[in-house]
Amino acid sequence: MSDRIEAQRIAADLEEPVDEANELARKFGLDPYEVNYWIVDYDEMNELIAYGGFQQRYPHWRWGMQYDRQQKQGQFLGGKAFEIVNNDDPSHAFLQESNTLADQKAVITHVEAHADFFANNEWFGMFAERPNAAAMLARHADAIEGFMTDPEIDRGEVEKWVDHVLTLEDNIDQHVPYEPIDTRIDLIDEHDTADVAEQLEELDLSEEVKGQVFTEEWLEAQTDEEEGATFPAQPEKDVLGFLRKHGMQYDGDAAKATEMADWQKEVLEMLRREAYYFAPQKMTKVMNEGWAAYWESAMMTGETFAGDDEFVLYADHMAKVLGSSGLNPYKLGLEIWNYVENTTNRREIVERLLRVDGVTWRNFHDTVDFERVLELVEPDAEMASVVEHLDELDPEDPRVDAGALEAAREAHSDSERASGEPASRAGEIDVETYPWKVLTYEGLAERHYSLTKPQNRGFLSRVSQEELERVSRYMFDDSRYGSVEDALADVDYARGWDRMREIRESHNDVTFLDEFLTQEFVDENEYFTYEYTQSTGDYRVTSTDYTDVKKKLMLQFTNFGKPTVVVEDGNYNNRNELLLAHQYNGVMLDLGQAEDTLKRVFELWGRPVNLKTIVKEFDEHDVEVAKRRDREPEPEEVGRLIRYDGDEVTIEELPWDAVEHLAADDIDYDTKPEEWLA
Questions:
Q1: Are residues 474 and 349 part of one domain?
Q2: Which of 292, 324, 356 is where one domain is finished?
Q3: Chain-wide mean pLDDT for the chain?
Q4: Where in the sequence is the domain holding 385, given as residue range(s)?
Q5: Cβ distance 288 to 504 under 8 Å?
Q6: Are strands 256-258 and 538-543 parallel, antiparallel or unpaired?
């Protein structure tokens, strides 16, 4: 009972921060889903994290493993769970009751930005209609638990079937909208290519009956002796969907493939649906976390949402989030969003300065006084220090919220009469605590203009000659300015934020990195690549070139960093065998894991399964020579076919022309999965 009372007390204390954070987010131009906030204890938070942000999931050992990992991380590695929020409408966010008020405010501002990303990024819109995800996952949980408790279904078989499907949960086509597959039994399969002779054999008909019903000419017409009918016509990325349509289960007792049971079809489709639901979160991890970190910082520090007595704790919170080891999506995402804002704002300034008489892209650095330019674009004093200039604000100014200004002035004058106590009457605005309330989006954009912040003051002067020439080449506006002052008189302070929202709507991590990770970004943030070298037997820094850094990062985020495997043929060699193909990008498959995965796929296909791939092989003599000469040996790339027939795994070499189409172009072939960017 006391725990419940404590949770209610915390919730009451957070009502104001929640309301104010949502209003501030909307002032910043965000449009988040409504968010329901819940107060949970330490164990409940770990359970939610294990369940992927939801309170109910289907029974499976993976949740217990993830719970144990999360708990050990908190106990032994110093990791702390600040929050978790799910993609739903409304969204649900869970706050840990042991967090400080500073942490809770940071979490709330972070969550509002996530809810905006969920609501406005088109990749989340790919999941058909906006989901009631909590209800969907609860229905799946109840259904799968129902199968497990059904006396006519062996619980162990259900658990194994779930394991088989989860092995392939990332093998979907995340670039197309989710399309459900009917879970009813298909009476006729348009792609039923089983050998007619085998089907007749199973019917156990006498030769006399066969001769009377099926002529020899008809039987020959059903079989293409030269090349069997193959499907799909094009490689199919949605392996789970293909298996749902055409797969069978392997009956060990009968030693043959049989129709999937209804419950097996339903479980496969439910887990496939969940894979499509979670795909956008995996596809936008860097963008989404960076987006939330950006707006959290703008609210907590830029608008002092963290009070004077909370700022140090908040700074520690942010340092832990951004300072975690490995490839940190929060840090990388925040840095790229900052870079996008700065480059957009810089382009606005450059375009205007290049229209000043006497300024060209060739003499730009010699002619422009950058310190003077920054002085001219500094936010007006009324925007930077609202409280000190409250009486000077013009309600007709588009940067000012006239209604809020009137309420703030009334509250401020009442507060002064009451010896500095904050306003408390309904409708009044405490402008000292919430100065942003009297500003519009345009006013806040000027107040937060990125190029004049101390950490960015050198960004404008670092514009390269190449960029100046490029901007000049594509300028079609003939208007000219007589002076720098005239050119900068009506700068669009919101251009950076506007561009950020455009990007937020359309990009995923791969396109985000591809478009905005430049040499300037790599140099400024000190990124580099490193690799394991055969010649030295250790890891070495290999490049600071942005193209190399980009390749490393994009390889990790393409297909969630997992190998891309497609269905190439559902009737391989005209024997109803499944042929999968690994789309090789220079990163070899772990052949041991590939063999284990094929065994799982066999259970979902019911017949032999095959996998084409490309592997690298090093000649031992070449390796020794390379070591002596301190250089890397050149590997030979060869094709391999891995096959599992239900009893044993075999591997055979394939000619290069059989796998050449699997090799991607323009990829760093020296990259290995464990060698990502530091």
A1: yes
A2: 324
A3: 84
A4: 332-523
A5: no
A6: unpaired
Position 624 confidence tier, pLDDT thresholds 50, 70, 90 = low
Taking the model in full, what pTM does it have?
A: 0.86
Beta-strand runs (E) in 397-515: none
Q: What is the pLDDT of residues 232-265, one digit of tens each?
A: 999 999 999 999 999 999 988 888 899 999 999 9
Alpha-carbon distance 642 to 613, whole Å? Answer: 8
Q: Which of 324, 357, 387 is the last residue of a domain?
A: 324
Asked if the structure places residue 441 within a domain, the reply is: yes
Q: Are residues 553 and 648 in the same domain?
A: yes
Nearest to 189 by CA among 235, 147, 160, 229: 229
Specify whether 502 is located in the same domain as 586. Answer: no
pLDDT, tens digit, 9 for 90 and up, residues 409-447: 887 676 554 544 554 454 678 888 999 999 999 999 999
DSSP 541-573: EEE--HHHHHHHHHHHHGGGGS--EEEEEEEET
Coil, strand, or helix at residue 26?
A: helix
How many structural domains compose the chain?
3
- Is 17 domain-assigned? yes
* Whether residue 562 sits in one domain with residue 431: no
Q: For residue range 484-499, list pLDDT tens digits in order.
A: 999 999 999 999 999 9
Single-letter residue type at 207 = E
Average pLDDT over residues 664-674: 47
Name residue 549's amino acid: V
Phi, psi angle pair for 536, to nearest 5°: -105, -20
Same domain, yes or no: 309 and 353: no
Of the candidates 351, 293, 338, 347, which has an alpha carbon nearest to the alpha carbon of residue 516? Answer: 338
Q: Is residue 619 part of a domain?
A: yes
260 within a domain of the structure (yes/no): no
Provide the b/e sequence for 430-440 (b: ≥16 CB within 10 Å).
bbbbbbbbbbb
Burial class (CB in 10 A: 0-12, 13-18, 19+), 664: middle
**Pair 364, 473 in one domain:** yes
